[in-house]
Amino acid sequence: MTNAAKARPCPICRKPRTQEFTPFCSSHCRDRDLAQWFNDGYALPGEAARPEDIAQED
Ligand SMILES: [Zn+2]
Fold first, then answer.
1. In 3-state terms, what secondary structure has residue 40?
2. How far is the CA of 7 from the centre of ligand 1 (A)?
3. What is the three-class DSSP state of 17?
């Protein structure tokens, strides 16, 4: 195995990544990736019905 051959760029902006923020190049790109992750989570439909709303059948 060679050590330097696997250097991959920042997945967000394709700049060389830094050791501090690996696998990203900067805190900016790291935050952007996190934001994308959260947006994906919010986009998921599901758990829309609240138990209080359906349990009121008398
Ligand atoms: Zn970047």
1. helix
2. 14
3. coil
35 Cα–ligand 1 center, Å: 14
d(CA 47, CA 28): 32
Within 8 A by CB and 6+ apart from 4, the residues are none
- Gap from CA of 40 to ligand 1 centroid (Å): 20
Q: How many CB atoms lie within 10 A of CB 41?
A: 8
The alpha carbon of 32 and the centre of ligand 1 are apart by a number of angstroms equal to 9
Q: For residue 14, give both structure tokens.
A: 């394709």
Q: Which of helix, strand or coil describes residue 9?
A: strand
Mind listing the pLDDT tens digit for each residue in 9-55?
999 999 999 999 999 999 999 999 989 888 877 665 566 666 676 66
